[in-house]
Design goal:
Elements lengths: L3 E6 L2 E5 L5 H12 L4 E3 L6 E9 L4 E8 L2 E9 L13 E10 L2 E9 L6 E9 L2 E8 L2 H9 L1 E3 L1
Antiparallel strand pairs: 1-2, 2-4, 3-11, 4-5, 5-6, 6-10, 7-8, 8-9, 9-10
């Protein structure tokens, strides 16, 4: 595995690689967040993990997946009064729905992107005091399949 450290500012690391071992990354994240991480088991064909960041101080991790020309982000952060993933949106919310998988309710928001036929989605859920969010531009069916195949430890 080839890893290049892009930045190491205090307790925050960003790593990028052409061949990232996701199992090892989840182990690294678990050292910061705990061993109960929800893993993304299914990914559409062509969706590849390209880089990730771990912020030990804020107890937050982000996995960045390349999918065609888009970047799909998978956020994990500890639930605290100070911790919230702010969402600024210039896109129009057009739908909200919920998917239940493995007994967990996952809230999904669908946004219309101005001047585009493409849609942007955010899926939010919590498990064992960890907040999760999957965010990006992809087909609704693909996001739903990712959600249905989440692996809860």
């Amino acid at each position: 595995m080839r890893i290049t450290i892009l930045s190491n500012v205090e307790d925050m690391e960003t790593k990028e690689s052409e061949d990232i071992d996701e199992i090892e990354i989840y182990k690294e994240i678990a050292k910061v967040m705990g061993n109960y991480l929800v893993r993304m088991e299914y990914k559409p064909r062509g969706m590849v993990l390209k880089r990730y960041t771990i912020d030990k101080e804020q107890r937050m991790a982000v996995l960045f997946y390349k999918y065609g020309d888009e970047t799909i982000r998978y956020y994990m952060y500890m639930n605290s009064k100070d911790s919230s993933l702010g969402e600024k949106s210039v896109d129009d919310l057009i739908d909200k729905y919920e998917i239940t998988t493995n007994g967990h309710n996952i809230s999904v928001k669908e946004y219309a992107i101005k001047n585009s036929e493409q849609k942007r989605y955010t899926a939010d859920f919590e498990n064992k005091d960890i907040q999760y969010q999957i965010k990006g531009k992809l087909k609704r069916e693909e996001l739903d399949e990712i959600i249905k195949n989440l692996f809860f430890m």
